[in-house]
Amino acid sequence: MKSTEKPGTPDAMSAMRRPMAQRTPRHFEWRVVDHGRVGIVTLARPERKNPLTFESYAELRDHFRDLVYASDVRAVVLTGAGGNFCSGGDVFEIIEPLTRMAVPELMAFTRMTGDLVKAMRACPQPIIAAVDGIAAGAGAILAMASDLRYATPRARTAFLFTKVGLAGCDMGACAMLPRLIGQGRAAELLYTGRMMDAAEGERWGFYNSVVAPEILLDEATKLASTLAQGPSFAHAMTKTMLQQEWSVSVDQAIEMEAQAQALCMGTKDFRRAFEAFARKAAPQFEGD
Questions:
Q1: DSSP states of the chain
Q2: pLDDT tens, 2-58?
């Protein structure tokens, strides 16, 4: 039966806000903490170092797309189980089948993997990658596509596409990695496919911080909780501008930011911050 709801009605608006607390994905773990404000995505095939499959790529893409409508979740942590982040595409469940596909099927696959990165960039919540152990191939891309990255001293990151006869230009790597660590450093990693250790990753600006393995998830979640307590509308606007201003002139960026900031000034959170400042109190943001 076709829905009779009209856009803007209470029922239609509530349908657009999809609560994520009860979501039960099949191919990774999802849980919410901090009163439902922080979501934790855990890649959970530790016996294989958390590789990706056709199904997990698609489900992760759909999950991050759904986060656009999840006003209950204000920040996300992305991590892996068992002492590793993600070893990339599973050799036998992805790589081998790809060798038997025709170009149209291959294009459908590469576009799907790119859509996962697009979904991560488009969701309004800041994403913090918590990287322990191996982050290789598509795993390195997932870390790269996150907004912030924590690592442990044993983190090993490799964009190893050339090791399997592919180009380094995978899932946006040639566009995004140079912006994080510089053109020359990105070129070296993408041409050679070598491992970047945690200390080098932090020195180059890929990792925001390196922490002990036993506190990695706690530190990433603590940062996510701090962000979740902030003005979520304004955080979403910051993320949007960080993405959209890559391809515009400085003059265009200044105008875009003027419009974005004016919208933020119209929020209740902006008034709450002023009123709290006047009372010499900490503001309690609600995201509206």
A1: ----PPTTSHHHHHHHS---TT---SSSEEEEETTTTEEEEEE--GGGTS-B-HHHHHHHHHHHHHGGG-TT--EEEEEESTT-SB--B-IIIIIHHHTT--HHHHHHHHHHHHHHHHHHHHSSS-EEEEE-SEEETHHHHHHHHSSEEEE-TT-EEE-GGGGGT--S--TTHHHHHHHHH-HHHHHHHHHH---EEHHHHHHHTS-SEE--GGGHHHHHHHHHHHHHTS-HHHHHHHHHHHHHGGGS-HHHHHHHHHHHHHHHHTSHHHHHHHHHHHTT--------
A2: 334 444 444 433 444 556 655 678 889 999 999 999 999 999 999 999 999 999 999
Residue closest to 287 by CA, chosen among 247, 236, 214: 236
Q: What is the pLDDT of residues 104-128, one digit of tens each?
A: 999 999 999 999 999 999 999 999 9
Match 């608006």 to its residue by tokens. 13
With a CB cutoff of 8 Å and minimum separation 6, the contacts of 108 are none
Q: All domains of the chain, ordered by start, with CATH?
A: 10-228 (3.90.226.10), 232-278 (1.10.12)
